[in-house]
């Protein structure tokens, strides 16, 4: 379907997900399987019900938080594991804490599954590592030239200035950020100007799990029904997308809202979300980052998944790179509904 070669490919695309037939395992399956290798803990890549999960050490506590008790095999980046004769190793993807690319080698053929990734080092998720391979499966969430990120430090400076301006005007600052990945980066950014950051339970849960696992992240103050309104006046508050516009936010009035998402690169999206500010802070590679990653793999074949895969694969083919569009069940939006719930909020 996606291959010109008559040889059996190392990875095939099935109704269960990415399947390595020689190794008899799946990568980020969207249905329960016997053995799953997980690139990262976001809900579209890590799903409940499989018998065994292999993942990076930093991903394990997040999988346990989201999926519950199970059989988890944590490994370090670069560790070599053989699964039914297939050489498997995980390598930094730079997407969120614990995120990995999966490298497979078998009978002289090397494939890399990127999962989700970004090429700018955010300082907490591990720097993306280009891996030479024959075939590369890449995301394309922001696979259009209009997506061109500013450096992280520039965005951080803008975010801190916005918060300080809100303080001076008597407003609380609510930053809308995904609970895994974005919220950790925003907390690091804002810890430079405050000793106390408040957070919705979904974000507080994930942050505390990571802190307990040894990651050097700021402590967050969990908001509960008992948190006094007066205490929250002028505060800095982190909230997941699912809380945006909800009744939960009323107690913070007066407040201003800033959305942290790559989609904020397009100004119309900020207006549609009725936000006071938009910060194009993304956990995904932009157009240039995607092209750089593809080039550095040296891959003969590129398979573009979720996002603007049609446009991205077409552009690669026009540049002489053999690329294929692959439709999957992975999210094509940067923000999914948060599944790290909090029953007290």
Number of structurally distinct domains: 2
Structural class: alpha/beta
Order of strands in the sheet with the most strands?
7-8-9-10-11-18-19
N-to-C SSE series?
Answer: EEEEEHEEEEEEHEHEHEEEHEHEHE
Contiguous helical run count: 7
* Major β-sheet profile: 7 strands, mixed
Organism: Flavihumibacter solisilvae
GO molecular function: RNA endonuclease activity
InterPro entries: MBL, RibonucZ/Hydroxyglut_hydro, Xnuc_lig_assoc
Protein name: mRNA 3'-end processing factor
Fold blueprint:
Blueprint: E1 12-14, E2 17-20, E3 25-27, E4 35-37, E5 52-56, H1 60-67, E6 71-75, E7 81-83, E8 86-92, E9 100-106, E10 109-113, E11 135-140, H2 152-168, E12 172-176, H3 182-190, E13 198-199, H4 201-212, E14 221-222, E15 236-239, E16 255-260, H5 267-272, E17 277-279, H6 287-297, E18 301-307, H7 309-318, E19 322-325
Parallel strand pairs: 3-4, 4-5, 5-6, 10-11, 11-18, 12-15, 12-16, 13-14, 13-15, 16-17, 18-19
Antiparallel strand pairs: 1-2, 2-3, 7-8, 8-9, 9-10
In short, what is this structure?
The chain is built from seven helices and 19 strands. It is an alpha/beta fold.
Task: Describe the structure in your own words.
It is a single chain. With 345 residues, this protein is an alpha/beta fold. It has two domains: 12-146 and 284-325, Ribonuclease Z/Hydroxyacylglutathione hydrolase-like (Metallo-beta-lactamase, Chain A, 4-Layer Sandwich); 152-279, Rossmann fold (3-Layer(aba) Sandwich), CATH 3.40.50.10890. It is 21% helix and 24% strand. The protein has seven helices and 19 strands. The chain has helices at 60-67, 152-168, 182-190, 201-212, 267-272, 287-297, 309-318; strands at 12-14, 17-20, 25-27, 35-37, 52-56, 71-75, 81-83, 86-92, 100-106, 109-113, 135-140, 172-176, 198-199, 221-222, 236-239, 255-260, 277-279, 301-307, 322-325. It has a seven-stranded mixed sheet with strand order 7-8-9-10-11-18-19, covered by helices on one side. Strands 1-2-3-4-5-6 form a six-stranded mixed sheet, with no helix packed on it. Strand 8 and strand 9 (100-106) form a beta hairpin. It is globular, with a radius of gyration of 20 Å. 49% of the residues are buried. Mean pLDDT is 92; it is low at 1-7 and 332-345. It comes from Flavihumibacter solisilvae. InterPro entries: MBL, RibonucZ/Hydroxyglut_hydro, Xnuc_lig_assoc.
């Amino acid at each position: 379907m996606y291959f010109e070669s008559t040889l059996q490919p190392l990875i095939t695309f099935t109704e269960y997900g990415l399947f390595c037939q020689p190794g008899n395992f799946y990568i980020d399956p969207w249905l329960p399987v016997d053995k799953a290798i997980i690139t990262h803990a976001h809900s579209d890549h890590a799903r409940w019900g499989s018998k065994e999960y292999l993942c990076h050490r930093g991903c394990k506590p997040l999988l346990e938080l989201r999926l519950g008790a199970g059989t988890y095999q944590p490994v370090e980046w670069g560790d070599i594991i053989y699964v039914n004769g297939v050489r498997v190793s995980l390598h930094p993807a730079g997407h969120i804490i614990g995120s990995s690319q999966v490298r497979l080698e078998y009978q002289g053929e090397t494939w890399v599954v990127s999962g989700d990734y970004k090429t700018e080092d955010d300082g907490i998720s591990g720097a993306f590592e280009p891996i030479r391979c024959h075939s590369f499966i890449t995301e394309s969430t922001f696979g259009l030239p209009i997506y061109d990120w500013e450096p992280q430090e520039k965005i951080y400076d803008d975010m801190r200035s916005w918060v300080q301006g809100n303080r001076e005007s008597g407003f609380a600052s609510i930053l809308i950020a995904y609970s895994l990945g974005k919220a950790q980066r925003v907390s690091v950014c804002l810890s430079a100007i405050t000793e106390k950051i408040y957070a919705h339970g979904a974000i507080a849960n994930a942050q505390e799990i990571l802190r307990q696992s040894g990651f050097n992240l700021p402590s967050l103050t969990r908001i509960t029904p008992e948190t006094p309104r007066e205490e929250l006046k002028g505060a800095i508050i982190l909230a997941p997308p699912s809380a945006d516009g909800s009744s939960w936010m009323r107690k913070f009035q007066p407040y201003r809202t800033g959305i942290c998402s790559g989609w904020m690169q397009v100004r119309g999206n900020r207006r549609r979300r009725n936000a006071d500010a938009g910060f194009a802070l993304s956990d995904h590679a932009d157009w240039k980052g995607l092209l750089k990653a593809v080039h550095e793999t040296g891959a003969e074949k590129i398979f573009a998944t979720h996002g603007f895969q049609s446009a991205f694969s077409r552009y690669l083919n026009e540049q002489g790179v053999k690329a294929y569009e692959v439709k999957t069940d992975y999210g094509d939006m940067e923000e999914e509904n948060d599944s790290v719930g909090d029953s007290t909020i």
